[in-house]
Design brief:
The chain has two domains: 273 residues, 3-Layer(aba) Sandwich (Aminopeptidase), CATH 3.40.630.10; 146 residues, Alpha-Beta Plaits (2-Layer Sandwich). A hairpin with a 3-residue loop joins strand 1 and strand 2. The longest helix is centred in the first third of the chain and has 23 residues. The strands form five sheets. A six-stranded mixed beta sheet has the order 1-2-5-3-6-16. By secondary structure, it is α/β, with parallel strands linked by helices. The model has no long low-confidence stretch (mean pLDDT 95). Helices cover 34% and strands 22% of the residues. Helix 1 crosses helix 9 and helix 5 packs across helix 13. Bound molecules: zinc ion. The site of zinc ion (ZN) has 5 residues, from loops. The site of zinc ion has 5 residues, from loops.
């Protein structure tokens, strides 16, 4: 063999060695579960969730006034359903509709924790009504299900928190730290009055929490290829959200004498330019944690990839959309089939990866498309959230509680693409996590904001069990 052949062979052996060593060194990050006392949860909780669903606390859009009959009715319902909680905890209403309960802890030197959910739900698309197994606000209970808007998003976690506090109060439990229950009323339209108002109010009071917990992470079943176990996705951060309007203005003209640059053609070209010049995939935090925690649970052949992102990261990052995504969502222009319009506009929505900003996305757009096109932001905008850590006491308590209540599940920290109310709480909380043990799979996932939203009785009781133990175990 020639000398170059030996060098080539040596390189292959070396790379294989690195791949192997890295793979062997990627070991499970899962903590050992604790043995828990079985918890008896009465069936009344099922009727209570059904009752909560009957209040159509719908958020239509940012400017619409909330339906006070529905929201105040829901508040009265909570008061009647959880008498101990309303006796022992103090309640403040923020911006009329949002609820902030304070459960005073016995040790004022400890930082509080904040448990969040939201009261509002999305509307039901009228033409899809016939596809529901029961009326979306009927609160129907079957042998194994509770059906209706809010059973997944997000009254199940709100009611589970209330139920677990009520149960703990009945046991005369007092938390060592103060616990806030923060229930916004406009999460589905950005949370600018609800969660943002609650966070501002707590900040004014000088509150700084150890942990905030909100929706946005689940027990996902068979959704991660290669992992047979249930995955408890604890999301440490969320992507940013920004839409940009691309505006083309020309002199227009008659379609029989088209100019070289047609208004609509220019706009179409800009969209194609953006689609063809996507923002890069990046292995940023918390995706690095996600790879480590998830990779360690995979069979050897898949594990090699996660253990060696230096070689395989592109395909892994692509599989989870780990970049700032580009999606054209609205296009408008033209009035008549023989007139070249003077104006054409498109809206392009971006979900921004941590590390990038609304401003950096705008620069990317301007550098990518023709400078004859005007670019302006439109509608709701938010930068990516900060990324919470996995070394804090809060994460350890959360992780241990999840593993103890669901020993078959593996905990995986990650990044969520959609927005939650939690993003307003980074300012007043050391760490912010998104997780409640709602079980989702590829099929039930489509029911979020969709048709036939429902939860199993058993899963609802699991959420209560989880919040009960989380509160009780938090030192
Ligand atoms: Zn929600």
């Amino acid at each position: 063999m020639k000398k170059s052949g030996y060098i080539f062979l040596a390189a292959i052996v070396m790379i294989a060695g690195i791949l192997l060593v890295n793979t062997l060194m990627l070991t499970s990050k899962q903590v050992a579960p604790d043995e828990l006392e079985p918890l008896q949860i009465p069936d009344a909780v099922i009727r209570n969730l059904s009752g909560a669903v009957t209040f159509p606390t719908i958020s239509y859009n940012e400017d619409a006034t909330p339906d006070s009959t529905a929201f105040f009715g829901f508040h009265r319902f909570l008061k009647a359903t959880f008498p101990l909680l309303h006796e022992k905890l103090s309640l403040e209403k923020i911006n009329d509709y949002s609820l902030l309960y304070t459960w005073k802890g016995s040790d004022a030197s400890k930082k509080p924790i904040i448990l969040m959910s939201h009261q509002d739900v999305v509307p039901v698309d009228q033409p899809t009504l016939t596809k529901w197994e029961a009326g979306p606000f009927e609160g129907k209970i079957t042998d194994d299900l509770i059906i209706g808007r809010g059973t997944m998003d997000d009254k199940s976690s709100l009611m589970a928190i209330m139920e677990s506090v009520e149960m703990l109060l009945a046991e005369n439990f007092t938390p060592s730290r103060t616990i806030y229950l923060a229930f916004g009323h406009d999460e589905e339209v950005g949370g600018s009055k609800g969660a943002a108002g609650i966070a501002a109010h707590l900040k004014d009071k000088g509150v700084h929490a150890a942990m905030t917990l909100d929706e946005g992470g689940f027990l996902s079943e068979n959704m991660v290829p290669g992992i047979d176990n249930t995955v408890a996705m604890v999301n440490l951060a969320e992507k940013g959200f920004a839409s940009f309007r691309l505006i083309v203005e020309t002199n227009g003209g008659h379609s029989s004498r088209p100019p070289r640059e047609n208004t609509i053609g220019m706009l179409a070209q800009a969209i194609v330019d953006l689609e063809e010049n996507q923002l890069p995939y990046k292995l940023v935090s918390p995706i690095d944690y996600q790879f480590e925690y998830m990779g360690a649970e995979l069979p050897f052949t898949d594990k090699i990839k996660y253990a060696n992102p230096w070689l395989f990261k592109n395909s892994l990052l692509q599989s989870i959309n780990a970049h700032t995504t580009t999606a054209a969502t609205i296009i408008e222009g033209g009035v008549k089939n023989n007139v070249i319009p003077t104006v054409a506009e498109a809206t392009v929505n971006f979900r921004i990866l941590p590390g990038e900003t609304i401003e950096s996305v705008k620069t990317h757009i301007q550098n990518t498309i023709s400078d004859k096109i005007r670019v302006e932001t439109v509608g709701f905008l938010t930068n990516p959230s900060p990324v919470s850590g996995i070394d804090s006491e809060a994460f350890m308590v959360l992780e241990k509680t999840i593993r103890s209540v669901f020993p078959e599940a593996v905990v995986v920290p990650g990044l969520v693409g959609g927005g939650t109310d939690a993003r307003y709480f980074y300012d007043i909380s050391d760490d912010v996590y998104r997780f409640y043990p709602l079980r989702i799979n590829a099929e039930s996932y489509t029911r979020f904001h969709g048709i036939d939203e429902k939860i199993s009785r058993e899963n609802y009781k699991e959420i209560i069990t989880f919040t009960y133990h989380l509160i009780k175990r938090y030192p």
